[in-house]
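Lecture 7 notes: from sequence to structure.
We start with the chain below.
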Amino acid sequence: MKPLPKVAVAVVLLAAAGVIAFAADRIYTNPDPGAELKRLFPAATAFSPLAGEPLHFKAYSVNPKTNPLAPPIGLAFWTTDLVPQEHGYHGPIHILVGMDMTGVLTGVAVTYDSEPYGYFSVQPPKFAAQFKGKSIRDPFTVGADVDAVSRASISIGSATRAIRDSSRMVAKKLLPPDALK
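Predicted structure tokens for the same chain:
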């Protein structure tokens, strides 16, 4: 067998380094968010794997394996995949966001944070509950349409910006054009 030319070996090594660098840049999230996805889309019967650009899950009311033409009822995505630079007081806040195909949030799930005041800011269910039903067109302003929490303004502000910015990014890339009007 003829040895590979040096150029081919270099190309393969560069490609492998790129894949490793991409994987290293991604903030680790829950590898099996099935329970959270079901909470965000209770009517869904199936979810796609995390894939696409930007990374996202698709929620289906009909299993796409039995009906390949079934349209998704919504999308779910990690804020840390879309806005990894957005950090709370102590680090990234891992938030899984659900959005229907019209740009309305079906809910959010805070799955991990290392915030010193997380137990009364981003962790309580009432923090996540206030985003259900919000449109990507809403202002997402802490103290106006998002509840402010004294002594946790950095965490609340960061989480709110991450939800707003990532939702708008996904909507712009993946929703039908008439949903953005």
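Points to note: The two ends are 60 Å apart (CA to CA). The longest helix spans residues 153-174.
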